[in-house]
Amino acid sequence: MPLSTYFTITQGETDQFSKYVSSGTDNLNVDLNWGYRQNSLSLTIIAPDATLGPYYDADDGVKDGRIRLSITKSGGIAPGTWNSWIYGQHVQGVEDYTFIWS
Questions:
Q1: Per-residue b or e along 28-41, where b marks 16 or more CB atoms closer than 10 Å to that residue's CB
Q2: For the segment 65-76, what is each residue's pLDDT rounded down to a tens digit?
Q3: Which of 63, 72, 94, 95 is deepest in the core (most CB within 10 A)?
Q4: Is residue 9 within 8 Å of residue 84, measured between CB atoms?
């Protein structure tokens, strides 16, 4: 079941979320969506075996106020607790966002 978080962030703020990934998991899909392209958020994922990112809006190929990733590894991704750090890199006022990983 996807973990979905609806939150707000401001300039310089960092929000952290954790997810347990069980053994035998082949991929992890991540979707950070704030929609307002004038603001800029970044996403860093800390897996049990690696740090991924930081990722920015255009890193998924489209500048649209959204970061979508599919993390896949031959033989399965590392089991254990995965952490994500969402950072308000350039935010005017307060930015609403959703964060889903499944």
A1: bebbbebeeeebbb
A2: 999 999 998 889
A3: 95
A4: no
Paired with 57 in beta bridges are: none
Q: Where residue 1 falls among pLDDT bands split at 50, 70, 90? A: very low
* Mean residue pLDDT across the chain: 92
Q: How far apart are CA 20 and CA 9, in angstroms?
A: 24
CB 27 within 8 A of CB 17: no
On whether the CB atoms of residues 95 and 5 are closer than 8 A, the answer is: no
In DSSP terms, 5 is beta-bridged to: 99
Pairing label, strands 66-72, 40-47: unpaired
Domains and CATH numbers, the chain: 3-101 (2.60.120.380)
Beta-strand runs (E) in 1-102: 3-10, 14-21, 27-33, 40-47, 50-55, 66-72, 80-90, 94-101
